[in-house]
Amino acid sequence: MSVHYIPLLAVDGGGTKSLCFLFDEHGQIRGQGRSGSCNYQGVGKEAAVKELILAIRNALEDGKIMGDGVIGEGEFVTDCAAMGLAGLDTEYDRRIIEEFVKDALQHLRIRAKHLIIENDGFATLMGATGGQPGILMIAGTGSIVYGMNDQGEIARAGGWGHLVGDEGSGYWIGKQAIIHILKTKDGRMAPNKLAAHILPYLGLRDAEDLFNWTYSTRYSVEKVGELSSLVSQAHMQGDSFAQSILIQAAKELFACAMAVIKRINLTTKPFPIILQGGVLYHNAFVREYVTDQFKKYAPYGQIETKLKEPIYGMMALAIDHYHKINEGQ
């Protein structure tokens, strides 16, 4: 059987789209491919495999390694394939994802001498820091904090989903607002501006309508996450209850960051801090509160604004591994 050596391979497989790059050891891109989501938790294992195959195949075709979607005879060999895939949160997830990644590569007759599989959040961290040590805090609909030190040790905190975690996220903020409105209805909290913002947005009349909506099929994580912007509006109008929700959100996010910093001992050297997600992008109060906490308790941390796509983080991992292999020869 003939063997065809191909460039290094990186994949960023997110919840909405997947991207594959073929590139050389200097980071020169030789081919690109795109496809839909390969998050098996969202689309199922079979669909995830198909989308992963499609992204890689499109990159091979773009790089003129494969033509017309038909693989020729023989085997394709790459020194390293690095993949950052959504849905990898537990060891159970890892077993499933490793299996379908190997199925996809086998289908394409690609043999990776070394295969790196990480969570897409880790890929985002690597892309944002260029593969260097740092902290990534994400607070969108969900929330999570990732970190890596100069020894390559990785830690994460949060990200346990809306049912039992995601503190400080848009969903968490929206849920707290709903709880506050219902407590106000009971007389357990003083009147506030939250209901005046949230009820009209949802097309509801009163707190009882809100209760019924919460337990109906109209309720969704995404819709509750949208309510966080209304909490911000109430806060800007001077509502102290809205402010208390946002302060607690910022404290929860920073608690995750501190846990990660302590676990990987990011305390003696400068490191970048990347803040991402709608809550941190659009809510100046939460962002400033978190930033102030970093300045107080993590003086070596530096807030960065220049960001790269996650795919570049996986490229950095593959290139680093390639050079380590060749230095050892």
TrEMBL record:
A matching Pfam family: BcrAD_BadFG
Keyword field: Kinase, Transferase
Transmembrane portions of the chain: none
InterPro entries according to UniProt: ATPase_BadF, ATPase_NBD, Euk-type_GlcNAc_Kinase
CDD domains: ASKHA_NBD_eukNAGK-like (cd24007)
GO MF annotation, one: kinase activity
Residues in ATPase BadF/BadG/BcrA/BcrD type domain copies: 11-297
Alphabetical list of PANTHER family matching this protein: N-ACETYL-D-GLUCOSAMINE KINASE
Protein name as catalogued: N-acetylglucosamine kinase
Species this chain originates from: Paenibacillus sedimenti
